[in-house]
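Lecture 7 notes: from sequence to structure.

We start with a single chain of 258 residues. Read the sequence below before looking at the structure.
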Amino acid sequence: MAAAFLPLTLSFARRELANRFAGSLSGALWALLQPLLQLAVYALVFVHVFKARIPGADAPGYVPFLVTALWPWTAFSEALLRSTTAIQDNAALIGKVALPREVLVVAVAGTSFAVHAVGFCAILLVLRASGQAVSLWGLAPALALYVPLFALALGIAFACAAIQVFVRDLVQLLGQILPLLMFGAPIFYDRASLPVRVQGLLDLNPFTAYADAFRALLLGHGTLDGMRLGIAVAVALAALVFGRWLFRRLDPHFEDFL
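Now the structure, written as tokens:
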């Protein structure tokens, strides 16, 4: 996105924030409360019902293990779902105002990532204050990982937002695919708990490298695999380039179908 469009993108991001929390009693605090409630449900089910444990004598507790991957996944999946309908939701505006349509997608995706990045920092500080072994030194590089993860989400969002204009049930299909990707990544479980022949299949999921990297940086659990992370960054850049190309290719036809 060109620097000249940054003020416009920020303006739409502020509008997205205002619309997102309009009428909410807790306002922006809901962005933290909703993942916390989700985390509490998962912790109750997996820790107290299924008695989930992470293998290894020096393994972290299950709650910080879950937080360090679930929160970034929430940012990724929410940004993708909300961005998919960004063009469709602004059909009236597009018909009246000449503007670069990419800013609508970037504003929605960027808002989701910004909100959940703040929540991510907050919950990590709470875990550290409660005595969990969370490395605050790893917080800065962990937040830096949000950049390629955002690029991946934005690239897919560009493609999906463009296709959604012509295929209106894409967002429903995406809502079914994302849970499959979530359970196909080591978010709720450690890859070491799977058979060796299956562990390699996890790397086909684009989120796997991020889940492993977040835990290595923040919990010291596992190793930071530079090659896997490099491939993940390359995939994110490729997705961004392709998604923006497809978006621009279909852009001239949006008004005919909105």
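Residues 151 and 236 are 6 Å apart (CA to CA). Keep this in mind for problem set 3.
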